[in-house]
């Protein structure tokens, strides 16, 4: 999988220092939002990253784009190590790496019209040489995402949620990047609009060869759009595989639980399926359990699970699992 990799993460870590206070005493703790995540994405492919809210998916995406400075590990993009690259040297990579944000309203400046929101990156990276050329390029971009000429001078509050997300997509496409982090781009939209946005992303990938990191908690959508899938839990990657391999041969008990909750349209098949319900709550990332991060909710946990984090290990066929029971 890594032979033609555009992006490769090697043991990526992103920790935050958190100040806590109790009984008049303050202390500092580390929140391990991303704790040793490794995967690669081939050029022109989509890697889906799934998991519960708060598992570190979005933090991983933002760290890849250097919106956060990584605590440890390496980010390899196009064969170059960009992990500790200064902003001046990284600036050309900004053109190659873009993001579609989850909230299509708060990610757009309410004081700027569409022409400025989409046009600003063109001027910043000197893609256009004059105002007329910039206007024509913005016009072309909004047509690409299904908007009209009279939308150019409107402000974000004048659009529906689906239209605002189209503006966000047009902004991400403005520089014609190679790699796009799609951070739950459809979670705030109606189901019918979700399908439209997914179709746009798939069309553009086929047309321009974009590479996507698709972050979502919707496993049905991830199965549809992705070529490979990684499952995160409490900052750790617990399972990763090609999409058909993961959905057809799921190994990790956490992934099994997630997939058992996905609705099935066939009532006969749904009736015969057993729902796997996890006990307990997700531990605080400020105070994670020792050993395997999933062990206190795992029905198969044993002694070694409390002593050692299994780490992600390849079990064949590009399928990797972080589970002592799978590795014995």
Give a structural overview.
By secondary structure, this protein is of the alpha/beta class. The protein is 33% helix and 26% strand. It is built from 12 helices and 12 strands. The protein has an 8-stranded mixed β-sheet, with helices on both faces. Strands 2-1-4-5 form a 4-stranded antiparallel β-sheet. A hairpin with a 2-residue loop joins strand 9 (228-233) and strand 10 (236-242). The longest helix has 18 residues, at 191-208.
Please give the structural blueprint.
Layout: E1 5-22, E2 25-42, E3 46-50, H1 57-64, E4 72-77, E5 80-81, H2 87-96, E6 97-100, H3 114-124, H4 131-144, H5 161-173, E7 179-183, H6 191-208, E8 211-216, H7 219-225, E9 228-233, E10 236-242, H8 243-248, H9 253-260, H10 267-271, H11 303-307, E11 313-316, E12 319-321, H12 324-327
Helix pairs in contact: 3-4, 3-5, 4-5
Give the gist of this structure.
With 328 residues, this protein is an alpha/beta fold.
List keywords for this structure.
12 strands; 8-stranded mixed β-sheet; 12 helices; single chain; globular; 328 residues; 4-stranded antiparallel β-sheet; alpha/beta
Counting DSSP H or I runs of 4 or more residues, the number of helices is: 12
Unreliable spans are: none
Assign a percent range to the helix content: 25-40%
Strand content: 25-35%
Task: Decide which structural class fits the backbone.
Answer: alpha/beta
Task: Give the overall silhouette.
Answer: globular
Mean pLDDT, nearest integer?
Answer: 90
